Automatic annotation (TrEMBL):
The chain crosses the membrane at residues 32-51, 58-77, 83-105, 117-138, 158-184, 196-219, 231-250. Residues 357-384 form a coiled coil. This is histidine kinase. Keywords: ATP-binding, Coiled coil, Kinase, Membrane, Nucleotide-binding, Phosphoprotein, Transferase, Transmembrane, Transmembrane helix, Two-component regulatory system. It holds the Pfam family HisKA_3. Residues 592-623 are annotated as: Disordered. The lineage of its organism: Bacteria, Bacillati, Actinomycetota, Actinomycetes, Micrococcales.
Amino acid sequence: MIATVVAISLFMEVSGYLATPEALRPELSWTTVHAIVPLVFAACAGVAWAIGPNPVPARLMIVFVLFWIPQAFYPVIESLGWLWPILRGVDLGWAVVAGILVLVYPRGGLGDRFDRVIATTALVATVVNFFTVLALAGPDSVPCECVPNPYRVAEAPAVFAIVDIGYRIVGVALAIAIALRLLLRWVRGSVPARTVAFLMPVALLSWVSTLAAQMVRYATGAPPNLALETVSLIAMASVPVCFVAGIAHARNMRARVADLMRITREGADRGLWAESLARTLRDDSVRVFWWDEERGRYVDAAGHPIDSAEEGRGHSILPVASPSGLPIALIRHDRVLTDNMRLLDGVSSALRLSVDNGRLRSEIERTLEQVRQSRQRIVEAGDEARRRIERDLHDGAQQHLVAVGMQLRIAANTARASDDDALANELEESIATLNEGLKELRELAHGIHPSLLSQGGLALALPELAGRCPVPVDIAVQPEGRLAELVESTAYFAVAEALANIAKHSQATRAWVRAYVEGDELVLMIRDNGVGGASLDKGTGMLGIVDRIDAVGGSIELDSPRGAGTTVTVRMPAHLEASDELPGTGAGLLVAAESGAEPPDAAAAPDPAKSVAPGVVSSPADL
């Protein structure tokens, strides 16, 4: 369609220029500008069709191209009596189309009663002028040696002149009314209104001014002014450009809704939402009222209820509800934004999505907190069960076996005093077997829950644990007082599992363990000089430790390049309990075992305050 009307327009322009006698031809530059005007309208029609809210403006621009009939075209059709009167009756239709195009800016349709009155008046005047030309126009009314008008019913040149000039006066008056209304609306309008209609008033006023000057010259019979007509053509060509610029601006405002969604993706913070929305819409008067379920009404971010007069004074209210119909908020905005419903729909969707994100985020955080607390209770219950089993073994079965051992020792001494060596030897063997069983029972109880951990904390339990590792371990413990019981047991079993993995898989010749408090965190660093290549996903032991550490809100990191050893770093909340400090020790108690080699990262962990000879492990008695 665009290509067709462009071809028709160029044909009229070129053929008319060639058909005009050379002495009467207008300036080539002016003819070129005259031909460019419909091309600009056609190009803007394509853009408006692609990005506009509806097809009406694009269709008006295409109709304008058809009505842009050059005066030089009449010599081409001067022999067609049936055609030239029709073209003479509609050759000013482009002005009517241009006026209606301005009226439908930017929404694409006539808005209020004023717009409808102006459009109706222009159309009625055009119809009256068309039939007047058909009935009264003669060959002298067009710039050509045309054949007589076959539609002419009477010769009334005075009536024809009155209607012709009156039609032009009405057209100029309507154009001035449209321009003044648009300018007044722009001056009195809010920032959004000025932003949407930022170019059209300038273009329209330029065109109307030159149009009025041309009408005066036409009515007085003065010769045309080339400069004035050129300015008029440029002003006319700027109208569709301004229209497309306004549509593109509105489209750009809708694109900024994506920024609004990115800003508020974490949830609907009420103060941030109102500020971001005002910046997106470029409307400082925007206010957001949130639905208060408790009070059953809308309130702003400060809790003040909505005023019943909020919708007046040039503002409109946009209700936002959830998909289920539950109210979410009311957005008070400048009334001019109702012309851009796509923008408002995007704002509604962004607010709805933001509220849903905030609600889901709160639910997820609440669920995760419940899971963490549940996991922590499970770990605490497991530790309590471990302590109870260890206590039962120590106070029950172990004491009974010790009593049996004492009885066997008395019986063996009695048999040896009676010179019954055979019985004494059998009793000695039974005592040895019983001692092995007691040793295994003590080790079993220690693995379930070490008693040293309950008695002295990490400062006593970790050195004893390192002493039972077949790989030499350099250990330094510097907790500032006793820690929370759950934190201490988690740290102990994390070190125990790490040392067990070192002994089984690392092929290391030395290991280092550091435990210290950094800020509000307990930091454990376990390193070896083995083959590396370890993974937290291998084996159920480390997975259990990871679960334990997660339960207390800690984290674990593993650095294990192949051939460069393995470093395990554990961080967890310390929850210091200064009142539980070990007797005879300060807050900076430091215990070292198997000293000699420095740790790989001495700066990352405290240096030992004292050391013992290689091969000797500190014990509770040493402390």
